[in-house]
Amino acid sequence: MDRIRGDLGAAEAELWALLTVETRGFGFLPDRRPQILFERHVFHRLTQGRYDAAHADVSQAKPGGYAGDAAEYTRLEAALGLDRQAALQSASWGIGQVMGCNYKSAGYAGIDAMVAAMVKSEDAQLLAVANFVKDRQLDRALQRHDWASFARGYNGADFKQNDYDTRLAAAYAKCIVMLPDLALRTAQAALLYLGIVPGPVDGFRGRRTRSALMQFQARSGLPETGELNSGTEGRLLAAAFSA
User: Fold this and answer.
1) What b/e sequence results for 106-127 when a residue is b if at least 16 CB atoms lie within 10 Å of its CB, and e otherwise?
2) Which residues are within 8 A (CB) of 107 and not within 5 positions of it... i.e. 6 or more apart?
């Protein structure tokens, strides 16, 4: 995060506002695949609409048809069977939901290299966000909190339909008051990967995170405090990330 913040000349609150709006601040699903959203209108554009009639579920001129979360991979897989390169470019990837068709702006020579990086780590996902923002010259808008200009460049001309700029402003207002606790966020990710849902992986302590920690502690024979003490943290991270 520090490297990305330095590259963009932005404060942490500005970056977390963007990431929170895009993915609630976490780039992976519980099964450890990157978060994606398949855009059927992009697939339609990249394939000149030749699959619209027979495969309207994944190829239409209008956006929509979203299934959400892991079900987006079902849509992606259907498109992969029709045109692999176009399908990968028609999904947005990772913590910042950078579209695959923007792989050059994200700093990659091809879509396969971008996807491989998105699968690898959140650090790579964040770097793609930074490269895209800089390539589209959106860093100044981010620094100035010109959310409308930033939203137009990052999310497209129709950003108002989803109140993208308003949601960015609201997320920023929250982030300047309190930033995520990164150690807690890592623990939440570990819990999620172990099948214990902690609520959003956002670095903020709530009842669901406390309950999830107690579940892990009970499973591991640790005192059920619901707190992320050093003993719990060590056991939790080892269990989730040692494989």
Assistant:
1) bbbeebeebbebbeeebebbbb
2) 127, 128, 131, 132, 135
Range of the domain at 233: 182-241
Rounded Cα distance, 238 and 229, in Å: 14
Same-domain status, 147 and 200: no
Tell me which amino acid residue 179 is.
L
pLDDT tens digit sequence for 33-61 = 999 999 999 999 999 999 999 999 999 99
Contact (Cβ atoms closer than 8 angstroms) between residue 28 and residue 34: yes
**Is the domain of 32 the same as that of 141?**
yes
Last residue in a domain, options 137, 158, 175: 175
Tens-digit pLDDT profile for residues 168-211: 999 999 999 999 999 999 999 999 999 999 999 999 999 999 99
Structural domain ending residue among the three candidates 124, 154, 175: 175
Q: What's the structural domain count of the chain?
A: 2
161 lies in the same domain as 190: no
